[in-house]
Write a structure and sequence with these properties.
By secondary structure, the protein is an all-alpha fold. The protein has a domain at 56-113. It has helices at residues 3-35, 50-69, 76-94, 102-112. It is elongated and about 65 Å long.
């Protein structure tokens, strides 16, 4: 097995663990938010993402076309996947942790007894 293959496999394992940890945190926050009784939808910006979309599109085009010019660029794809996975995992950690309100904690305790 080549060194690059080992690096990609190790990176895949680490990025998957980081993503899973972030996802678990996001699920716990969503459940706590639901149990707190908040129905806050929040505002989601409908624009302002074009730069990120263009960068992702351009990067994928360059990596696919680049393979024809430099065979070592075949490894760009797996690294882009690893970076994306870690980026999504990081996004879950930007949200502050939501704690159960005292009322929701009391309801939860009453349900379990």
């Amino acid at each position: 097995m080549s060194n690059i293959t080992i690096v990609i496999i190790a990176g895949a394992l680490l990025s998957t663990l980081y993503f899973a940890a972030g996802y678990w945190r996001g699920v716990r926050n969503a459940i706590a938010d639901f149990r707190n009784g908040k129905d806050d939808q929040g505002t989601v910006p409908q624009n302002g993402h074009w730069a990120g979309i263009a960068l992702a599109f351009l990067t994928s085009i360059v990596s696919v076309v680049g393979i024809g010019y430099a065979p070592w660029l075949i490894y760009v794809g797996p690294f882009l996947v690893l970076v994306t996975t870690v980026g999504v995992g990081v996004a879950f950690f930007f949200e502050k942790k939501i704690e159960l309100s005292p009322e929701a904690a009391q309801k939860e305790q009453n349900r379990s007894h």
